Amino acid sequence: MWNANGIHGDGEAPYALDVVKENGPHRLVIFGTARCLWDDRRRFNEMLEGKTHHVMTINDAAIHVMGKPIDHIVSLHKEFVGPLKKMKMAARNLGECTTHCDKEGKDVQCFWKFSNVGGTSALFGVKIGLAMGYKKITLCGCPLDNSGHYWEDPSTVGILGCGAIGMVWKDAARDIFKDRVRSMSGRTKEILGEPDKEWLTIKET
User: Fold this and answer.
1) So what's the pLDDT on residue 95?
2) 1 lies in a domain?
């Protein structure tokens, strides 16, 4: 078992453990796939005011989020990560990135074995971010509600609004996150709080 920054995992420690803890940048934004992603990203960028940060994408967000290069691609589906990385590169989102999954596979560069990820890739991504040493993590497009994905018909009802999933996030906020994680929208904003300029301002080492 390994332990880093309050995050525990089984098996061999992933090579990415603590890689940003000392040298930064210490801010990470995680882009999910909910309909609110684009508005969340706009408001986050206005709040960030050009401060250094890394980008992590959840599942399909890797091929649609343009602008700043993507540093990490995360999925709970090992068959997704390879094609997502290739499509990201084809879409001219330049820069090398690392793929992360909870299962080993030929396209999985970093394998993380947590005892519980709560059934959501975003929570999985947050734990990875904290384990890697990011000090301020902001969620965009991860409202944890039934609003559906940005590519779906507007009448589609999502599946993440159940109470059990919310309880997992509340437990993680209390026991693990320690105000290192905030969200731009939805239930995750209610649970974690919304970032502001003061919270995003940290001393770089």
Assistant:
1) 78
2) no
